Amino acid sequence: MGEESVEYRTAVTVDDFRTNLADVQARIDSARERSPHGQPVRLLPVSKTVPEDRIRRAIEAGCTELAENKVQEAHRKWQALADQPVTWSVIGHLQTNKAKLVAEFAREFHALDSVRLAEALDRRLQAAGRELDVFVQVNTSGEESKFGLAPQEVEGFVAELPRFPALRVKGLMTLAVFSPDVERVRACFVLLRDLRDRLQSTAPEGVDLSGLSMGMSGDFELAIEEGATVVRVGQAIFGARAVPDAHYWPAGTDRVPPT
Fold first, then answer.
1. pLDDT tens per residue, range 178-187
2. What is the structure's pLDDT at 248?
3. Helices and strands, counts by H and E, the chain
4. pTM of the predicted protein model
5. 173 and which of 95, 106, 121, 213 could share a cystine (Cβ 3.0–4.6 Å)?
């Protein structure tokens, strides 16, 4: 959403991270005051492309949970930072053959979008004696380049999820369209919230759809105004990335909202 004009301050020292985290939290608090929904909002820092030494400073500054798009990168950092008091989430598309890695270390997964993947994760988690919090990814922008279920497919998919006891469903997730048109971006968040509100009354027992994982560095304030309970923020905390976001998103994606 108009990211060309945004300059993200690169955090190098612990104090840099404290400053950036405080700035983001202040923006979250301000957006919550504007929101009519009155929901608590959890900040999920996204550390993709950030080296371990800087991540250690971010943890020292107060980050107790971190998220990554690529599971291999997340797994490597989890191993390298095993001595740190931090939990890990995977927020990007996952191939079923990588389910074993997620089952080994992740606390949370934000991109569940197929029964096949649910089956693979559940099988691996049960073998490991673990459970995993999951958000169902919904494609609210209608863009072919984005992963996620079409809105009309979500109800049927959610009805299948009680078959997978190791998956603890916590809500829905989306990526908004990347556009300078605020109302186009807002419409994606409104669609997800309205879908959640409609499905909560029909969700199977044990399936919690209260969470809304939506909003990234360029649009998290809009997302909070429309009911987000989790915002996934990277560059506003860590600074601009040298690696383009296209490296982390499907082929053919020209531009996506930066995390």
1. 889 999 999 9
2. 47
3. 9, 8
4. 0.92
5. 213
Q: Which two tokens stand for residue 157?
A: 């998919």
Confidence (pLDDT) at 241: 79
What does the alpha-carbon distance between residue 248 and residue 92 come to, in Å, rounded to a whole number? Answer: 8
How far apart are the C-alpha atoms of 61 and 21, rounded to whole Å? 8
Residue 231 has φ and ψ, to the nearest 5°, of -120, 135
What is d(CA 3, CA 106) in angstroms, rounded to the nearest whole number?
30
CA distance 32 to 18: 21
- Bridge partner list, 43: 231
Per the DSSP assignment, residues forming a β-bridge with 171 are: 135, 211
Quick: pLDDT tens for 58-67: 999 999 999 9
Token pair listed for 34: 């504007």
